[in-house]
Amino acid sequence: MTDQVNLEPTIEETAVLLIDIASALMSSGAHTMRIIQNVSRMAETFGYDLDVSVFQMSIMMTIISKKDPGKLLTQIRKIKPLRLNFSIVSDLSALSWDTYDKQLPFEEVASNFQLIISQKRMNSWWVLFLVAAANASFCGLFKGDFTAMTCVFFATIAGFFVRQAMIKKHINHLVVFTTSAFVASLLSGSGYVLHLGHTPEIALASSVLFLIPGVPLINSILDILEGHILTGMARLVNATSLIVCIAIGLFTSMLLLGLEKL
Amino acid sequence: MTSEMIRLMLIDGLLAAIAAIGFAVISNPPRKAIFVSAILAALGHSLRLFLIKSGLDISLSTFVAATFIGLLSMLFARIIRCPAEVFSFPSLLPMIPGMFAYRTILSLIRFMQSTDGIKAQGFMLDFFHNGLTTLFILLALVVGVSLPILLFPKLSFSVTRKY
Q1: Which end of chain B is more exposed for a tag (fewer CB within 10 A), N or C?
Q2: Integer distance in angstroms from the first to the last C-alpha of chain B?
């Protein structure tokens, strides 16, 4: 009998684990509906009911014991800045189903969660190379010639390197986006000044596109369509301000190079 | 469909696949999802090119291509047991209307700096034309890809379930 009691997770332990999972999902770029579904499913397995509200900066959660509705706990957790990580989203989603279907014990879920969030990211030099290749072929999709694509490749390497370095130093993300857009467009705009190739304007335009916050944009519309309008609007405003910053960076280097008159 | 058209679509698909791989790795997805997003991007982007060449409007063809990607991603999500958005989002990114967005900003700068009233009207026209196209393509992308998620919510949230 005492063993049984020890196995049952306390309401505090469960609440802390669930809000950790929710905030990890939020800062890895999951949309609101998925976060709510995942944590509610796990709470049900452990014998609790869950009410969650998700905001841009914090998550609020009330957890109620099913056996004893008088036993409840509300807590708020800050969300770390957004750093996209779809491996975490995918693995946590799988973990929540495993918990539900196999009735995994609490300790196992907690240790699996720790394993999932401590996974290593892909090597940042690889990412740098792949992003540069992607942006160059993006330039090709817009009918840029080979010179323009080469220009974009090197401009993206510089711009993305600046971005990675600044993110490591925890500089304000609006400043990061403006600066890396400025660096990338300044380099690819030199192709314009030096008359390289036949399509320098395409090189200039596509050199900053690796910065476009595509996932937050799509998430925001998805949230709004699913009825989480406040969170969706917050994400939308965030993504829009990043796009404005990219435009400011591009604008500054165009004015510096004197390209607006072309 | 001529051989020239097929050649164009192949090149388009290849470039879109490389672009999708690069934009996918920023969000650190599982390895198998990277390949799926490359395949989806190639199929979706060359479908869009085909629709545009056959005379359909760009935002409408984007919508069709995005819906196609969304539907295929539900299928692949079941096969590799991974949430659909993990690979359907990166495969949409090659369709982001970068050139239109750039021209929107450019015409805004020109409007701001122009002193000639008649020329300024032309720039304003450019601004609205390019800006609205950008906006509608973006909306078409998002609504198209999320239609399957909204239509089959049960399916889309249970793909990572093993039993």
Answers
A1: C
A2: 45
Q: How many Cβ pairs within 8 Å bridge chains A and B? A: 151
Distance from C-alpha of A258 to C-alpha of A161, rounded to nearest angstrom? 25
Closest Cα of chain A to B33: distance in Å?
A: 9
Question: Which one-letter DSSP state was computed for residue A66?
Answer: S
Share of chain A above pLDDT 70, in %: 96
Mean pLDDT across B71-84: 86
Question: What value of ipTM does the predicted structure carry?
Answer: 0.84
pTM for the full model? Answer: 0.86
With an 8 Å Cβ cutoff, are B18 and A133 in contact?
Answer: yes
Residues in chain B within 8 Å Cβ distance of A90: 29-30, 33, 82-83, 86, 160
CA angle A101, A93, A163 (to 5 degrees): 165
Find the CB nearest B18 among A134, A247, A251. Answer: A134
- Chosen domain end from A117, A144, A175: A117
Q: A86 contacts in B (CB within 8 Å)?
A: 27-30, 33, 86
Token pair in block for residue A154: 């090197």
Q: What tokens appear for A248 in the block? A: 């400011």
Tens of pLDDT along B88-110?
888 988 888 878 887 887 888 78
Q: Say if residue A71 is in the same domain as residue A142.
A: no
| B43 part of a folded domain | yes
Domain boundary among A89, A117, A145: A117
Given B23, B103, B161, which is nearest A134 (Cβ)?
A: B23
Cβ contacts of A108 within 8 Å, gap of 6 or more: none
Return the residue of B nearest to A156 by Cα: B22
A1 confidence band (pLDDT: 50, 70, 90): very low
Q: Which domain holds residue A187?
A: 124-257
Angle between helix axes A214-225 and A229-257 (nearest 10 degrees) is: 150
Q: How far is Cα A148 from Cα B16, in angstroms, rounded to an integer?
A: 17
Residue of A nearest to B142 (CA): A218
Question: Taking residues A86-108, what's their average pLDDT?
Answer: 88
Q: Which of B19, B90, B160 lies closest to A138 in CB terms?
A: B19
Any A CB within 8 A of B143 CB = yes
Q: What is the pLDDT of residues A230-249, one digit of tens each?
A: 999 999 899 889 988 998 89
* Helix, strand, or coil (residue A227): coil
Instruction: Return the bridge partners of A53, or none.
Output: A60
A2 falls in which pLDDT band (50, 70, 90)?
Answer: very low
A144, part of any domain: yes
